[in-house]
Design a protein that fits this description.
The chain has twelve helices and nine strands. By secondary structure, the chain is of the alpha/beta class. It folds into two domains: 64 residues; 189 residues, Rossmann fold (3-Layer(aba) Sandwich), CATH 3.40.50.150. A hairpin with a 5-residue loop joins strand 8 and strand 9. The structure holds S-adenosylmethionine. S-adenosylmethionine binds next to helix 7, strand 4 and helix 10.
């Protein structure tokens, strides 16, 4: 993109940026351009195409150039615009929390299918995307959410307020070493499941920008599943169930054995890439 006196209309920037990002090997080039422009112009995606002939002013172009440079340097677009979509809504993100991933939305779909419950605990809440979405979708009466990271809990609380909810109870808690005194109808979690020796093989965009404590258990990637199996009776009401994300096909067998070895029943669900991604565990 040159800095001469050429007039840049919204549509020119979308087309230029989509081509530029595609040549840099980015998958979702056009959509990312649209997100940047929506953020700069404080508008919805549809407005970009209604206003497509509008010429961008120099201040807007400068913000756009900075965004493109940061993206080309490898920063996730979600950190650049400070938010990420989850289940059709935006959540505030920064380097202290995992960027919500589309595959995690399956947890919400499962809870919808299983029907409303009285109480839910979300362990390792991060942005709060799971807990907050269950509230916004009216799936649960009483919502509790924990994380070991105080900074994550602060972002989750901001997200709760952003979405005009008040009733989620957040608490700092280390699931691997502390117990809960109450039982819940649903316990849901997307725990850190990358084995520590696989951290170096992650995409740089993930390894360098998501917090390590959100990615790995600093062990074989299965510590949380072992702990959930051991804590099942203490955590779940009589008809309660556990719903967990895990690391895809390669982890399925090991995760299944952990729960079957303590006599629990398991059911698995796939993500949109056709990988096994979610386990539901019941007595
Ligand atoms: C994979 S992230 C999931 C974040 C969010 N729930 C989501 O799905 O986008 C895992 C979260 O677990 C938290 N965590 C890591 N170790 C923990 C522990 N021992 N006890 C509780 N939370 C922990 C991390 O801080 C991080 O927020």
């Amino acid at each position: 993109m040159t800095t001469t006196t050429k007039l840049w209309r919204i549509i020119d920037l979308i087309n230029w940026g989509a081509d530029h990002f595609t040549t840099k090997g980015m998958d979702n080039a056009r959509r990312e351009m649209e997100w940047f422009l929506c953020d700069i112009l404080k508008c919805e995606r549809i407005d970009l195409y209604v206003r497509f002939e509008e010429v961008m002013d120099e201040g807007e172009l400068e913000i756009f150039r900075t965004m493109v440079k940061r993206r080309i340097a490898g920063e996730p677009f979600q950190h650049i615009i400070g938010k990420a979509p989850f289940y059709g809504r935006d959540f505030i993100v920064n380097q202290k929390v995992l960027i919500p991933r589309p595959e995690t939305e399956i947890l919400i779909e499962r809870m919808k299918t299983n029907g409303n419950v009285n109480s839910l605990l979300d362990i390792g809440t991060g942005t709060g995307c799971i807990a907050i979405t269950t509230g916004l979708e009216n799936l649960v009466e009483n919502i509790f959410a924990t994380d070991i990271s105080q900074s994550a809990l602060e972002i989750a609380t901001e997200n709760m307020r952003l979405h005009n909810l008040e009733n989620i109870q957040f608490a700092r808690h280390d699931f691997l070493s502390q117990n809960f005194k109450t039982k819940f109808d649903v316990v849901v979690s997307n725990p850190p499941y990358i084995a520590v020796n696989e951290m170096n093989s992650l995409q740089a965009e993930v390894r360098d920008y998501d917090p390590p404590s959100a990615l790995t258990d600093n062990g074989d990637g299965l510590s949380f599943y072992r702990r959930f199996a051991e804590q099942f009776e203490n955590l779940l009401t009589s008809d309660g169930y556990l719903l967990l994300e895990f690391g895809g096909n390669a982890q399925k067998g090991a995760v299944e054995s952990i729960f079957q070895n303590v006599g629990l029943n398991t059911e698995f669900f796939k993500d949109l890439q056709n990988d096994w991604r979610v386990i539901e565990v019941r007595r």
